[in-house]
Write a structure and sequence with these properties.
CATH architecture of the largest domain: Up-down Bundle
Structural class: mainly alpha
Strand content: under 5%
InterPro entries: MFS, MFS_dom, MFS_trans_sf, MFS_Transporter
Membrane topology: Multi-pass membrane protein
Transmembrane segments: 18-37, 49-70, 77-96, 102-120, 141-159, 165-186, 198-218, 238-259, 271-290, 296-316, 328-350, 356-377
Radius of gyration: 20 Å
CATH class of the largest domain: Mainly Alpha
GO cellular component, one term: membrane
CATH topology of the largest domain: Growth Hormone, Chain: A
Number of domains: 2
Oligomer: single chain
CATH superfamily of the largest domain: MFS general substrate transporter like domains
Distance between the termini: 26 Å
Helix content: over 70%
Shape: globular
Protein name: MFS transporter
């Protein structure tokens, strides 16, 4: 790459980090608003759970459409529109007066987040390809950083007594400033005029998508079941049971910040193989640990192992030749997100039939199989 083109490439790389930061920031800003929404709408726990499904439904339905639109109009336009959807809906989530209005707002919010999630990975594949070195883990790290900043910012504002809708508007303004700086450097390539807009995933893309499903399933299990497991199975007090997910999240974020160097050193297949093995070993350690410190080491190993698996799988999906990347990335993203949604439910079903220990062991085996199966991806 010539010296003259390097500043352009550097600006695109920073802009890509920004677009990964933004959806993580937005969805984490919503989390502290959930109790306020529950009280305002009068929903009980069951009703709130059903309403929250609208966020996931919006994401899953929007992802394939986003890939098609990105192929036709370019990543920049689609990311601008989807971030606008998510950003403008955030204040609505803070004022929605009824269950129906909250459900509709969550559907649009989820559609914006999910569609942006899909297209930003398309952008990342192109930027990484031009750089000719691994960059995907670093991009994904900024999603996690955005989540931490968004949750901290909204929580801090609420703790200061700021009204939820005012806090949402302030964070919307912060998002708008980031977009104004980053958007001019987002990619705007379009697919050829005769390129298909939709296709069912097949061959290597289907395999990568299934591996993403399992990897995201593992992350979803950490989010929804780690605290329950520590509390109900291992007897950790409820006030400390969240330490498992905290350790997992910190380990994953830190590993992704340095993950690109690891992937360059190990190679893609070996990085996924080792990552799956480390995550599986960590989950087994966390499952059978007799004391909390040992269990926390296990959760840290799960975060360390899972950190580079999904970024590498997205890179592989972008570089395969069986399907255009504008079709492959949405397919892999959709299957992965389905793992986040379905994983906790599957664990609950297995736990109901047998036990949480059995469910966690099965997840560990699945993570190990991801590492082994990834060697078949070329």
């Amino acid at each position: 790459m010539s010296a003259a083109s390097f500043p352009v490439a550097a600006r695109q790389q920073h802009a890509t980090r920004a677009v990964f930061f933004l959806p993580g920031f937005a969805i984490a800003a919503w989390a502290p608003l959930v109790p306020f929404a529950k009280a305002r709408t009068g929903l009980d726990e069951g009703g709130l759970g059903l309403t929250l499904l609208c966020l996931g439904a919006g994401s899953l339905l929007a992802m394939p459409v986003a890939g098609a639109l990105a192929a036709r109009f370019g990543c920049r336009v689609v990311m601008l529109v989807t971030l606008l959807m998510a950003g403008l809906t955030l204040p609505l989530l803070a004022i929605a007066p009824s269950a129906i209005s909250l459900a509709l707002a969550l559907f649009v919010f989820g559609a914006g987040i999910g569609a942006c999630d899909c297209v930003m990975n398309l952008q990342a594949v192109m930027v990484e390809r031009d750089a000719r070195r691994p960059m995907m883990s670093g991009f994904h790290a900024f999603y996690s950083i955005g989540g931490a900043v968004g949750a901290a910012a909204m929580t801090g504002l609420l703790a200061l007594g700021v009204a939820p809708w005012v806090g949402a508007c302030l964070l919307l303004a912060a998002m708008a400033m980031v977009v104004l700086v980053a958007a001019p450097h987002w990619r705007d390539e379009r697919a050829a005029g005769d390129a298909p807009m939709f296709a069912i995933p097949r061959g290597i893309v289907l395999l990568i998508g299934l591996l993403c499903f399992v990897a995201f399933l593992g992350e979803g299990v950490m989010l929804d079941w780690s605290a329950v497991f520590l509390n109900q199975v291992q007897g950790v007090p409820a006030g400390r049971a969240g330490l498992g997910f905290l350790v997992f999240s910190v380990a994953m974020t830190l590993t992704r910040l340095f993950g690109d160097r690891m992937v360059a050193w190990l190679g893609q297949q070996r990085a996924v193989l080792i990552g799956g093995a480390v995550a599986a070993a960590g989950l087994l350690l966390a499952t059978f640990a007799s004391v909390l410190p040992l269990a926390l080491i296990g959760y840290a190993l799960v975060g360390l192992g899972c950190a580079n698996v999904v970024p590498v799988l997205f890179t592989l999906a972008g570089n395969q030749k069986a399907m255009p990347e504008s079709l492959a990335i949405p397919a892999v993203t959709t299957l992965g997100y389905a793992g986040v949604l379905a994983g906790p439910a599957l664990v609950g079903l297995v736990a109901h039939r047998s036990s949480l220990v059995v469910a966690f062991v099965l997840v560990a085996i699945a993570l190990l199989l991801v590492g082994i199966a990834a060697r078949a991806v070329r």
